[in-house]
Amino acid sequence: MSGLIGVDTGFFLALSQKDKTALALFESPAELVTSVLVLYELQKKLREGDRPRWREALADLERVACVIPLTSGVALKAGEIAHDNALPAGAALIIASLLDAGCRTIYTTDNHLKRLELRGVEIIGLPGSDE
Amino acid sequence: MPAVSFYLKQEVLDAVRAKAKSENLPVSRLISQAVERLLESEERRRAKSRLLEILTQRPLGV
To answer: pTM of the entire structure?
Structure first.
């Protein structure tokens, strides 16, 4: 595994379910990249899941992965991807952030993203709620 | 910035000098960067461990 590896919120959910692929990636030296939207979505999941240490988890996520902010460039790219592939806003913003950061491998549980075909980008599907 | 002094084995110092020369950096800067990277890497490892512990307490709902 080399280069920047993009991960979405589903990756962290898969990790919480001890998915072998997610665990192997997380424990490898791979450089993980994610989007600020994942911080938002994961905060909701952690708090709904009654995790008192949710703040600590999110602070650690920022130490473990490079968190890409939303910019006007990312928003415009997300609009294009959403239009061309009929993607929901959140998924499009996350994928656009990861592509903008230079990720060419992306791990996801999102069925919309699993179906996405982007030249030069490998989308690796993890088992998740979407299935 | 405080200055520090310490001992290095001769072969380590030779390797550090060669590396610094090849990267066009002062030896002190090269050593300083190496220490910073080591500390960051250890903090990152601890963060990974804590995050995994919190996430895997029980599966997060969807």
So the answer is: 0.85
